[in-house]
Amino acid sequence: MASKFQRKPSPGGAGGMGGASSVSSTPSNQPRKRVKRCCRNFVTFMCTQVGVGALIVIYAICGAFAFMHIERQFEDKTAGLVMELRQNCSQQLWSITEEHNIIDRRLWTEATNKVLREYQAQIAGVVKHGYVGRSPEQIWSFPAALMFCLSVITMIGYGNMVPRTPWGKGFTVIYATFGIPLYILYFLNMGRVLARSFKFLYRSLHDCTQEHPRLDRMDALEGGVSLTRKKVIVPSTACLWVIFFYVLTGTVMFANWERWSLLNSFYFCMTSLCKIGFGDFVPGASLTTTADVNAATQKLQEDISADPAELAQLQSVAADQHSKLAINFVYMLLGMGLVAMCRNLMREEVRLKAREMREDAKLCMEDTRLRFVGCCGNPRDAYEDDYY
Length: 388
Fold this sequence. Notes:
With 388 residues, this protein is mainly α. It has 14 helices and no strands. The protein has helices spanning 14-46, 49-71, 78-100, 105-128, 136-139, 142-153, 166-209, 213-222, 236-257, 262-273, 290-302, 308-319, 321-376, 379-387. The chain is extended. It starts with 13 loop residues before the first helix and ends with a helix. Residues 1-5 and 10-25 have low confidence and may be disordered.
């Protein structure tokens, strides 16, 4: 009876279709799994120290090119306004000279001072609205744009150059929204790595200064005694010395490249690493850009008396700016990492000191209680003696 109702499997039945679908689905899923695996590995690498450092460098470079493309399209009309104000002032001074120079010197002085005060007030108003005496191509050079991106994501905010176009302002908001969390991730990871490396170096130097630490460990192993390694805490003075020598290196470097005084260079390094960022000194502002070379070339073509050696000097200096730019950028990023390292190491020492202070406070309170009981006695014991 069972064989009567048993259905014979057909070659094109459900079993065959299921086997075919399982066989055909395996090759189609392999590219998807491979893409998922690659994306997972890429995200894992980007979360490492090397990946975060590379990502923040690429992010800053891409932002610099984007700001250069956006802000160079700004039409600066203040240059023509300043030229018109200068011509009007010179014309008024000439008219006053013709009118009062021979007749009355006092009236001429008063009239010229009045014109000059008006001219100063007008120029101050133009400068307040963003006039710096340079074209957008000269302002938004690659070094300046890169330092602007670095000041945005590190929250320093020098303020020496700002976006003028609506697209530039909107892009700054979006750029800071994604760049600041990326910098915080870099700050934490780099501080952890540098703190671990510096602690290992300090522990190695500390073991070298001890008297025969290796022989003591060998004797303990031969005697069957487990020797626990003493925990070494990096003192805060060592962190401060590291920061001091790093700032001193930057002081000499920026004073040489940016033509600053040693005091101004030291002032810039300290305010930048402390994230104050006044903006009165910013690296890259004095670097020779392509726009400067083009302006010198045009001047040489128009003016016969111009010196060709000046153009050759500008071209040689501009060719050397890329290495200086890279070193400036790495100096700032590494300096932020050193600040994070000192923060981690000093936090560990502060925790240890706080734990020791808490233990000392407990011992002090216990000693005070025992001394108080020893001097005054226990009131409960006195009551029990009177009762009996």
